[in-house]
Specification:
By secondary structure, the chain is mostly helical. Helices cover 70% and strands 0% of the residues. The chain has 23 helices and no strands. The protein has helices spanning 7-31, 39-52, 67-72, 81-84, 86-107, 116-127, 130-137, 142-157, 161-174, 179-188, 194-203, 213-221, 224-256, 274-282, 292-295, 297-312, 317-331, 340-344, 347-350, 355-358, 360-385, 392-419, 430-448. α1 (7-31) packs antiparallel against α5 and α9 (161-174) runs parallel beside α13. The chain is globular and about 60 Å long. It starts with 6 loop residues before the first helix and ends with a helix. Residues 193-202 and 425-449 have low confidence and may be disordered.
Length: 449
């Protein structure tokens, strides 16, 4: 009997799923009053049309993205329904490419050293996921970012540091949040025997020991891989920003970056800040002058960009990036369904060593609570937005807190799983070593038979 998970079958299924959703979306847009196409896609294509006319993409109200996205989507301004759907097709293809990179990471010696069949099982969580296919074919650009993030991880595990820096700079320019990965990648890039070298200097006097230990530690930290990553990422990020500022001046800075510090989006927002944001937008005089929507990023950044990388990055980089993203989304003042894709792209890389798989009851419980608390919030939102019932309190507020509590519990399980792994040496990854042990165990069992 031929294996179920083969490269041809999985990728053919992934492509067919997206083609099916694309065709269905065309029909729904024509015959249904409820459109399949995401409102964000209309914003993207309008911005691209302004660019094609030599105008700024920020002529389109609510366009809060880099002009690079509007440039990429220029073909959507060409005549014809096919070209209008160009962006959706591009985002769907990006999904497939992201899935391919997941496969590469899982097969890499540093990322798990899995067989193709094993890796495809985990990659299918992304490739054959209807939610992922739906979001991209409705016109959300998250697929493009997913490619950048998982390609970034692949370049790091394969030690292609300059390319990793370029991808990091591009990803942060494209959407701000990937900057949190810079901390974990930098922390994971130790030089071989760096600490041992410092200790040897202390025991054997040399000209280097004339410098204080803190200075020698800092010097050892800024090794060649870290300097290459910093240089290439900052160069890429700065170059792209200067280019966009040259073309679009202050509106580029405001809409792409500064706007998000004071953003007040209260619709379709699972965040526990939802009620506060609604009050801030409806009656700003009733809300504290502290402007909490501007301060919400402090615990978010402290946890996702500082604490988690320092504690976990040297144990398992892929798992650390997942935990960072999960924390970033959970603590974000705006949390919508498409943000779930930010961490879903990294989930297949963590699951092989996760308690959610090794203890199936725990995994089922986590999935059930995650879905049910979302459903509770959506039920309250439906009564508010479609039936006109006021469900702000206790309905939306309490359901938002419950969903947040479930996310924090899931994050705690992730952190505990990653924290229990051995701190790896440079050039070595615990996941790869565990995969070798699994392979040896399988071979031994076969010999016994």
């Amino acid at each position: 009997m031929s294996p179920v998970f083969t490269t041809k079958k999985v990728f053919f299924g992934a492509i067919a799923l997206r083609v099916l959703f694309l065709l269905y979306g065309l029909l729904q847009d024509v015959y249904s009053p409820v459109k399949y196409t995401d409102i964000d896609y209309m914003v993207f294509t309008d911005a691209a049309r302004y660019v094609s006319q030599g105008l700024s993409p920020y002529e389109r109200e609510t366009y809060r993205y880099t002009p690079l996205l509007a440039w990429i989507l220029l073909p959507t301004s060409w005549p014809g329904a096919f070209w209008f759907s160009f962006g959706k097709m591009l985002f769907a293809v990006s999904d497939i490419v992201a899935g391919w990179f997941i496969l590469l990471v899982l097969q890499a010696p540093e990322g798990g050293a899995m067989t193709t069949e094993q890796a495809l099982k985990y990659a299918s969580i992304w490739l054959l996921n209807p939610m992922v296919a739906t979001i991209s074919t409705r016109g959300s650009s998250e697929g493009l970012l997913a490619v950048m993030v998982v390609a970034l991880l692949w370049t790091v595990v394969r030690r292609r540091i300059i390319l990793a820096g370029i991808l990091l700079g591009l990803a942060v320019h494209f959407k701000i949040y990937p900057f949190i990965y810079g901390a974990s990648i930098l922390w994971s890039l130790d030089s071989p025997h760096a600490l041992t070298s410092i200790k040897k200097q202390d025991s054997a006097p040399s000209p280097a020991t004339q410098y204080p230990l803190p200075l020698r530690t800092i010097t050892a930290f800024f090794n060649r891989p870290r300097l290459l990553l910093l240089t290439s990422s900052l160069t890429t990020f700065t170059t792209l920003n200067l280019l966009m500022y040259y073309h679009y001046s202050t509106p580029f800075l405001h809409h792409t970056f500064l706007y998000h510090l004071t953003r007040i989006d209260h619709r379709h927002n699972f965040s526990p800040y939802n009620t506060l944001l609604h009050l801030s937008s409806a009656k700003p005089d009733l809300v504290s002058s502290l402007k909490l929507e501007s301060l919400a990023f402090i615990p978010q950044i402290a946890i996702s960009a500082i604490v988690i990388p320092i504690v976990l990055a040297k144990r398992n980089l892929a798992g650390t990036m997942l935990a960072q993203t999960f924390a970033f989304v959970a603590f974000n003042k705006v949390c919508t369904s498409q943000y779930f894709l930010w961490y879903l792209i990294l989930l297949p890389l963590h699951l092989p060593t996760s308690s959610f798989l090794t203890t199936p009851r725990l995994g089922v419980l986590a999935l059930t609570l995650w879905i049910s608390t979302q459903a509770l919030w959506l039920h309250q939102a439906y009564h508010l937005e479609f039936l006109g019932h006021s469900t702000f309190t206790p309905g939306l507020f309490v359901s938002g807190l419950l969903f947040f509590a479930v996310n924090i519990w899931i994050l705690g399980v992730m952190v505990e799983d990653i924290g229990s792994q051995t701190i790896h040496q440079p050039g070595w990854d615990g996941a790869g070593e565990r995969a070798k042990r699994r392979g040896a165990a399988v071979n031994d069992s076969r010999h016994e038979r």
